[in-house]
């Protein structure tokens, strides 16, 4: 939430409670009078809008236009709530954040967007505010109007009491719900990113199998079939075909190993991040110093994300940086896993530069992580990634002995 500050009258606007009553007729009292007198026309307009919107949308919900009209009405209610918050800021000195926008998830289509609008909690709370505010606006308008002519000596007390009820209604129904809605919107957006990323990974694996190992195995089967036919007629030609098929088998096996490494490398499962990152560093075109400082291994999902993040960043170092050396540091700080990849290349790296960094930022954000790139022109480039630490689930028997290796601090120079 936005930090609050003291208002000119000595009160503290925001969520700290109502300001004290004053006997003097100062500008704050007259602002409250203006708010209470304008409540009635504004409340009538809001009530008419919400009743019409709900009645028409619900009545036509059996048709194809009813639900879209209701979703559009809730979007209009959001605007009504924004106007009411602005009025409360100007006349009641109430300070509050604006609620989060509706999350936009790519690929959900019209139905997904429609459902997103229909379940908007901000819009529905504004509708509730408009319903219950009308009778209160009639009462507060009447009391304030009568008080201007009859209750003049105690009018500041009466106005302050009525305005405090308005403040409570605005804060209770129109302010963000302790960041809950903002967090829900972020999580829904992150869930869409995770689903899209998983689908893209599945498509990549399918494409690699179809275009690589599968095509090679089909050619291998055809070659062995021809060799079988020539076995009696031309043994030398058959032997040459079998020898060629043997070479195809080796290539197919290598492609399958590379594909398996891209899904989840065995060295990561068996020996942890220390050995897995050293293996990645050994395939980089520049010398890489790897340092892993952790007393225990994180959860498998976090460990896998850390591995593929470093792998992608080192590929960028090889392809785009022009660096002579690079370093990878991984360590744990309280409940966070931190990764820093640095190179002495030309710099100028950016998540919008088409090097896969935007995808990395989305993947880390989907698990409540952070991704920061510091790459001035001329270098050096420092990429810092931060992941939540989750403890590794315990394993039993021989699997624990095989996969429960705890890496310590190490320094490995590879190139």
Number of helices: 12
Largest sheet geometry: 6 strands, mixed
Mean pLDDT equals 77
Give the DSSP E fraction (strand runs of 2 or more residues).
5-15%
Strands ordered across the widest β-sheet: 4-5-3-2-1-6
Uncertain runs with pLDDT below 50, 5 residues or more? 1-16, 397-415
Describe the protein's topology.
Layout: H1 27-59, H2 66-92, H3 109-118, H4 121-149, H5 155-174, H6 180-230, H7 235-263, H8 266-271, H9 273-282, E1 288-293, H10 300-321, E2 326-333, E3 336-343, H11 357-366, E4 370-374, E5 381-388, H12 397-403, E6 410-414
Parallel strand pairs: 1-2
Antiparallel strand pairs: 1-6, 2-3, 3-5, 4-5
Helix pairs in contact: 1-2, 1-4, 1-5, 2-3, 2-4, 2-5, 4-5, 6-7, 6-11, 9-10, 10-11
What would you say this structure looks like, in words?
By secondary structure, the chain is of the alpha+beta class. It has three domains: 27-178, no CATH class; 195-263, Single alpha-helices involved in coiled-coils or other helix-helix interfaces, CATH 1.20.5; 266-414, Heat Shock Protein 90 (2-Layer Sandwich). It is 61% helix and 10% strand. It has helices spanning 27-59, 66-92, 109-118, 121-149, 155-174, 180-230, 235-263, 266-271, 273-282, 300-321, 357-366, 397-403; strands at residues 288-293, 326-333, 336-343, 370-374, 381-388, 410-414. The chain has a six-stranded mixed beta sheet with strand order 4-5-3-2-1-6. The two termini are 48 Å apart. The model is unreliable at 1-16 and 397-415 (pLDDT under 50).
């Amino acid at each position: 939430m936005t930090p609050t500050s003291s208002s000119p009258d000595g009160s503290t606007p925001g969520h700290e409670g109502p300001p004290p009553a004053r006997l003097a007729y100062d500008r704050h009292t007259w602002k409250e009078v203006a708010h209470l007198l304008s409540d009635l026309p504004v409340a009538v307009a809001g009530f008419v809008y919400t009743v019409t919107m709900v009645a028409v949308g619900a009545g036509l919900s059996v048709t194809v236009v009813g639900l879209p009209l209701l979703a559009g009405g809730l979007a209009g209610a959001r605007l009504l709530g924004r106007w009411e918050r602005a009025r409360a800021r100007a006349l009641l000195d109430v300070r509050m954040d604006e609620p989060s926008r509706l999350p936009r998830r790519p690929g959900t289509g019209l139905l997904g967007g429609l459902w997103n609008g229909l379940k908007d909690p901000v819009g529905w709370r504004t509708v509730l505010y408009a319903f219950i505010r009308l009778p209160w606006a009639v009462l507060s308008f009447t009391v304030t109007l009568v008080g201007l002519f009859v209750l003049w000596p105690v009018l500041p007390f009466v106005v302050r009491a009525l305005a405090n009820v308005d403040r409570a209604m605005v804060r209770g129904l129109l302010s963000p719900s302790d960041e809950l809605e903002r967090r829900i919107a972020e999580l829904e957006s992150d869930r869409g990113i995770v689903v899209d990323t998983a689908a893209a990974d599945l498509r990549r694996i399918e494409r690699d199998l179809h275009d690589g190992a599968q095509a090679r195995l089909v050619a291998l089967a055809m070659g062995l079939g021809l060799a079988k036919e020539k076995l009696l007629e031309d043994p030398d030609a058959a032997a040459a075909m079998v020898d060629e098929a043997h070479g195809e088998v080796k290539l197919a096996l290598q492609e399958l190993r590379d594909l398996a490494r891209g899904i989840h490398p065995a060295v990561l499962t068996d020996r942890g991040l220390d050995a897995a990152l050293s293996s990645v560093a050994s395939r980089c075109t520049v010398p890489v110093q790897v340092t892993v400082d952790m007393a225990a291994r994180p959860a498998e999902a976090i460990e896998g994300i850390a591995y593929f993040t470093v792998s992608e960043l080192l590929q960028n170092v090889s392809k785009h940086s022009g660096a002579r050396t690079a370093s990878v540091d991984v360590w744990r700080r309280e409940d966070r896993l931190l990764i820093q990849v640095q190179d002495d290349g030309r710099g100028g790296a950016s998540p919008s530069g088409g090097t896969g960094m935007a995808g990395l930022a989305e993947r880390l954000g989907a698990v409540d992580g952070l991704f920061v790139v510091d790459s001035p022109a001329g270098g050096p480039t420092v990429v810092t990634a931060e992941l939540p630490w989750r403890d590794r689930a315990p394993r039993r028997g021989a699997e624990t002995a095989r996969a429960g290796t705890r890496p310590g601090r190490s320094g490995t120079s590879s190139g």
